[in-house]
Automatic annotation (TrEMBL):
One of its GO terms (cellular component) is extracellular region. Residues 1-20 form the signal peptide. Residues 461-492 are annotated as: Disordered. The keyword Ribosomal protein does not apply. Gene3D superfamilies: Chitin binding domain, Glycoside hydrolase/deacetylase. The lineage of its organism: Eukaryota, Metazoa, Ecdysozoa, Arthropoda, Hexapoda. This is Chitin-binding type-2 domain-containing protein.
Length: 492
């Protein structure tokens, strides 16, 4: 608390000196945008700073040295990747007719394993008590996997930390295509981590696009992973919308039609009691800040929502991705304490799964990375804490087990599970591939155990054949088509 105020004074002094220099130009009194809630917003004056709005009050923050604020992704990143703001906030139009809307949860009609809901999303499955169930932690990593982050991820997931059953802790990767290294992704899958999809192009505004675009992005990404990282379709169960803008009913129709099991893009506002995952048989049990959540029912489709992270003082702000909270001014012990306080809201109440969602930039800042390692060391010392993949969490939720039954729970036992992904090659092919964006032809490097394709794989051409629009994805429901044979589902 004191430290925070101290820092705030430092910031205030920094503002004072800057505004003294440009006094005439702007008598800056930043006002938080109304109606869009809490979050980070670009400083109109410079891309090196941003405002964190908490309940309408702006706190000025600086990006760590060398980084710039990206007003789309809402965090500080490398200069050539940062889209400087302010970028106008467009309110999401309401496109769905009010007919056909999902009803409020009816617990009498909704039964596991196919359906799960509760009035405010806070109930524990099967009404078990918090004392008798495990606290699950879901580490999720978004975006490309490559040499900038792979070693950092391996430090967490490479076997240093174990669950109570002795198996190494695992995480879930929501992969986007550009700059990804498919040899590294293959190894993540081979070693028991979960691979899920984000999109091929990370395009903005996807939430307003149609079914074909969602299929092209999501199913195309799944195909790229199958082809270049040997991850079979049956192991890819989840998706996350870019920028956490779900695609209204359209995206969930794709989930249904193409045999995905869950989405994890919906943000839960900062609640006293965190939400458990739920199925979309009923209305979403919380407010939808993005404005683009589904409104119809999608029976049996799971939402693994992103509860907002925050501490009681709101120091650091409120964020779905941990790297969007402002903790980079802290030292590793303060990062640890912040995470512990945030975590205790789950651990000491309903033990909803604690999702720790990261972009790669968390791992570029030493204090944050060290703080995370301290947190994991601490959490893995607790007898009832398990770091599991998102699919493993859903396996527990659909068939809940008490703590004493967990050492024999096969879904969490690495000795009983084996990845269908082959062990990756020792040395991959490093492919330099032509990539056209607008008029400019650029080169993209892609590493894979497969032969190099002709072109950089892209929308409509997931195998990089060089024939645009070659792909034609056919519905594939998981229950009806258990075969691994990929070619049958794609033809031309
Ligand atoms: C794959 O992961 C294992 C264990 O985490 C590691 O020993 C091995 O070097 C990795 N292989 C590659 C190609 O990265
Ligand atoms: C993975 O590689 C193995 C061995 O090359 C192959 O038999 C299998 O079909 C591949 N799986 C996928 C999903 O590509
Ligand atoms: C593409 O080329 C056309 C004509 O040469 C030019 O007018 C246009 O500005 C270029 N667009 C981009 C994005 O470079």
């Amino acid at each position: 608390m004191n430290k925070f105020h101290c820092k705030f004074i430092v910031f205030a002094l920094a503002i004072a000196s800057i505004s003294a220099q440009s006094k005439d130009k702007e008598k800056e009194e930043y006002e938080c945008p109304t109606n869009v809630g809490n979050g980070n917003f670009a400083d109109p004056v410079t891309c090196r700073r941003f405002y964190q709005c908490v309940d309408g009050y702006p706190y000025l923050n600086r990006c760590p040295s060398g980084l710039y604020f990206d007003d789309i992704q809402k965090f500080c990143t490398f200069k050539d990747e940062a889209r400087c703001g302010p970028i106008p906030i467009t309110a999401s139009p309401v496109t769905e007719a009010p007919i056909d809307n999902a009803q409020r949860c009816d617990p009498a009609e909704c039964e596991l394993p196919y359906c799960f809901c509760s009035k405010d999303g806070a109930n524990i499955p099967k009404d078990l008590s918090a004392e008798e169930i495990p606290q699950m932690i879901l580490l999720t990593f978004d975006g490309a996997v490559n040499h900038n982050n792979y070693d950092h991820y391996m430090k967490v997931l490479g076997g240093k930390y174990s669950n109570p059953n002795g198996c190494p802790i695992k995480g879930t990767f929501f992969i986007s295509h550009e700059y990804s290294n498919y040899l590294q992704i293959q190894n993540l899958s081979f070693t028991g981590n979960e691979i899920a999809v984000e999109t091929i192009s990370s395009q903005q505004g996807l939430q307003d696009k149609g079914y074909e675009e969602w299929v092209g992005e999501m199913i195309g990404m799944r195909e790229i992973l199958r082809h270049f990282a040997n991850v079979s379709n049956s192991e890819i169960n989840g998706m996350r919308a870019p920028f956490l803008k779900p695609g209204r009913n359209t995206q969930y129709k794709v989930i249904e039609d193409f045999g995905f099991i869950y989405d994890s893009s919906i943000v839960v506002p900062p609640n006293k009691i965190p939400s458990w995952p739920y199925t979309l048989d009923y209305k979403i049990p919380h407010e939808c800040k993005s404005g683009t959540c589904p409104t119809k029912t999608f029976p049996g489709v799971w939402e693994v929502p992103m509860n907002s992270h925050f501490v009681e003082s709101y120091e650091g702000g409120i964020c779905p991705y941990l790297d969007q909270c402002v903790l980079h001014n802290h030292d590793p012990d303060e990062v640890l304490e912040w995470l512990q306080e945030d975590f205790s809201r789950y651990y000491e109440q309903n033990k909803a799964p604690y999702m720790m969602a990261f972009h790669t930039n968390w791992f570029q800042i030493k204090e944050l990375e060290q703080g995370l390692h301290k947190f994991i060391s601490w959490a893995t010392s607790l007898p009832d804490v398990w770091f599991v993949t998102t699919t493993q969490a859903l396996q527990w939720i659909t068939d809940p087990k008490r703590n004493k039954e967990l050492t024999t729970f096969d879904a969490w036992d690495c000795r009983k599970q084996s990845s269908q992904t082959q062990r990756p090659c020792y040395i991959g092919n490093k492919c330099a591939l032509a990539y056209k964006s607008g008029n400019i032809t650029d080169t993209r490097y892609m590493e894979t155990c497969r032969d190099c394709p002709n072109k950089f794989p892209w929308l409509g051409d997931s195998e990089g054949t060089g024939i645009p629009g070659r792909d034609n994805y056919i519905y594939q429901s998981k229950d009806t088509s258990p075969t691994e044979d990929s070619e049958s589902e794609k033809r031309k």
